[in-house]
């Protein structure tokens, strides 16, 4: 199986209460914090650690960032270029991924950033493609409102194609480096794009030669039909959120069918649901930790703040115990899919805003594998061998402890069961994932 660690360059993990975990590290503004975590994951031979990102502090709720700041609802987001550059220097094998938006960055900037990082890491970088989520991000980049869903994906399609062609603007053998003749590179093997599309005009070529991986792998997490089609075309790793093995298996089948329909090899695209492992020295210890994580560490207002962020809707006029009605679902973009996902967890009956919000900030938004190292490995193995996934995006409940426990207690069992590598055998991220180096786009 593929194992990818899900990180944030932030005060918390994707689990919004992680900063309150007893004994958790609080030096998230110190470079050595990220280097320690990356070293732990590399000891566990993870394929990749990738960092989520947002381009604004959560400020939709009440048109203010006050609650995000007060309750630690991910108000901190460090620049990922600096973080990945530092991790490239402190690690040797593990892949390094970063989130960059196709809505608020130009394609040339993204292409050059990731090409540079791929060279400096000796071929270990991946790009997590997002289209961003809300108006606050738009307002940080000079516009008032966020593009609608389909417009963002229209832009993203052209964006990723331009980036791919920029990465391919140097042929592999373009560098000559003939000192005697004074020839640095062959101009016939370095190509201008002169791209003129609906959204972008980019002359090219890139100022960075073709990278060790040819093109860095692409991660994508679109859940809508349009998002799944986009992932089928471009993604090497598809990041999903599935509450149960049955739901995961259905999404896995659907996504692989979309990949096959456009002529790509389905074995070369990994579908990876996010999961929270809660590991203990005993089953009772693990369940005690799970209870604390579910019940004690996430403030309800942090949950509501993050729900407003992801739906781009201000819930300040609603009470936490207000029922989610059909009228509310119809009026708030993005809520329908969340409601459907939550109902898969809780079943029919009254659904309140408190419960819906909790699924955005707590351990309720993905499957939990709870127990001893052997029990967690068995649960993961059931999903993997049962046709539900190609591996997992492992989300931490606290740092650095959750990853340390996973590497110490779960990884050895996965190895004994023949489900995970004993050591790195390649040097690039593509080699870790069993992905070929791509041919240049003509």
UniProtKB/TrEMBL annotation:
InterPro entries: Diverse_substr_monoxygenases (IPR051260), Luciferase-like_dom (IPR011251), Luciferase-like_sf (IPR036661), NTA_MOA (IPR016215)
Domain Luciferase-like: 24-387
One Pfam family it belongs to: Bac_luciferase
Lineage top rank: taxon: Bacteria
GO MF, one example: oxidoreductase activity, acting on paired donors, with incorporation or reduction of molecular oxygen
Keywords: Flavoprotein, FMN, Monooxygenase, Oxidoreductase
Residues given in the record as FMN binding sites: 53, 99, 149, 153, 224
PANTHER family (UniProt xref): ALKANESULFONATE MONOOXYGENASE-RELATED (PTHR30011), C2H2 FINGER DOMAIN TRANSCRIPTION FACTOR (EUROFUNG)-RELATED (PTHR30011:SF16)
Family the entry assigns: Belongs to the NtaA/SnaA/DszA monooxygenase family.
Name by which UniProt lists this protein: LLM class flavin-dependent oxidoreductase
Source species taxonomy: Bacteria, Bacillati, Actinomycetota, Actinomycetes, Pseudonocardiales
